[in-house]
Write a structure and sequence with these properties.
The chain is an alpha/beta fold and 279 residues long. Helix content is 31%, strand content 23%. 40% of the residues are buried. Residues 7-8, 59, 69, 87, 89-95 line the site of adenosine-5'-triphosphate.
């Protein structure tokens, strides 16, 4: 893998801090662009917002050993749907999500993700950067030469979609974790992102914040029909909001498809997992 490509979460956050902007994570700025469109019949040809074909990803250790992390991962996610990415700890969910976001470069395979795409981190403090909610959501519009009126309208719609319009003038540091997540999602929406890649947003949230964030994503997809979301989670109860899901084990996509089918599959296999992973 090329040295310039980041490989650890810390590295990615560092890149964000050095650039002092979050735009690379919110908009269509890929950190790699060397993946060929192999064949339109295979990748990117249909109405899929997210596709990967036989993605492999390995890590080079210091002693020159290659550790395979992802193995032949293929999936297709239709446009406008809300999908979950599930699997036991360490199976490769975050790595796959980062490849789809363009934050990591696969060792081989093909990726097509509709753009602009946006990656929302588990910890919203890593991408909510301005003092007030309104200023934060407007942040990414700075380069677009919009009038104040146009900016206000866009910010207002994005905050309405995530149920945060009443917090327009609030100081960001006074918000709860879930409210910050929703502001981060509004920041992605205001830039008209077509694909939201959401990495375990609810892990550290209490139940009401958790439901608030997941409903915000669902409302967003209902209101912006061409936005697609892929949500990494450990919480099986969140599947009730999903149209479909991708289930991984040991670096492989074991199954992907309709949410109820994946739910049945996981339930049937539950007993073989480490206690607590899916409880
Ligand atoms: N930079 C790295 N160096 C070495 N191993 C890594 C690196 N990044 C990821 N891994 C390993 O790759 C595997 C997949 O990691 P990943 O974070 O994608 O899994 P995950 O399914 O998201 O896990 P979790 O559910 O615990 O968040 C893990 O075994 C992890 O230890």
């Amino acid at each position: 893998m090329d040295k310039e490509f980041v490989s650890k979460e810390e590295d990615i956050l560092l890149v964000g801090r050095i650039m002092n902007i979050r735009a690379p994570f919110r908009a269509s700025v890929p950190l790699y662009s060397n993946l060929p469109a192999r064949n339109n019949n295979v990748v990117g040809a249909d109405n899929f917002a997210i596709e990967s074909h036989r993605i492999n990803y390995s890590i080079n250790t210091e002693n020159g050993k290659l550790i395979p992390i992802l193995k032949d991962c293929s999936l297709k996610i239709p446009s406008g749907q809300f999908w979950m990415l599930l699997g036991p700890n360490g199976c490769g969910k975050s790595t796959l999500l980062k490849i789809l976001a363009g934050l990591l470069c696969p060792t081989d395979g093909f990726v097509h993700v509709r753009k602009p795409r946006s990656f929302v981190f588990q910890n919203p403090d890593h991408q909510v950067v301005m003092p007030t909610v309104e200023a934060d959501v407007a942040f990414g519009l700075g380069l677009l030469n919009l009038t104040d009126e146009e900016t206000k309208l866009k910010v207002s719609k994005a905050l309405t979609d995530v149920g945060m319009h009443d917090y327009l003038q609030r100081q960001v540091q006074t918000l709860s974790g879930g409210q910050k997540q929703r502001v981060a999602i509004a920041g992605a929406l205001v830039e008209e992102c077509k694909v939201l890649l959401l990495d375990e947003l609810t892990t550290f949230l209490d139940e009401s914040d958790q439901i608030g964030v997941i409903k915000a994503v669902k409302n967003t997809l209902n209101s912006c029909k061409d936005v697609t979301a892929l949500w990494v989670t450990h919480r099986l109860e969140e599947m009730e909001y999903a149209d479909g899901a991708v289930y991984m084990e040991n670096g492989r996509v074991v199954m992907h498809g309709e949410a109820s089918m994946i739910m049945d599959f996981i339930e049937a296999r539950k007993a073989s997992y480490t206690k607590g992973i899916y409880s």
